[in-house]
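# nightly structure sweep
# worker-07 picked up a monomer target from the shared queue
# config: single-sequence mode, recycle default, output format = structure tokens
# input follows
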Amino acid sequence: QVQLVESGGGLVQPGGSLRLSCAASGIIFNYYNMGWYRQAPGKQRELVAVMRSGGSTIYAASVKGRFTISRDNAENTVALQMSSLKPEDTAVYYCNAERLIGFREAYWGQGTQVTVSS
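# output follows
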């Protein structure tokens, strides 16, 4: 059974920092691209950052330079370090594990709320 368990969300003031973590089980972790997505109220889920199995990264333009994704293949974890947070970063953040094996195989965590407000 595949499980992705996020932690680290919460309330932070604008300009502050927060670190999200995701622990994966039930998959061969280093086979998967690991990513973070977010969904704000009334909006579609959007990509925040992805680290491919080979180590390359993709960031949304809105977070580039402020957020950093990292993964630990030995611990089966992926993290998202968020800095210089803005109110528009407020959303539920989801961990994602994905690979293409003729079809798209994807798994999602339950989500963790991040609220940026003074």
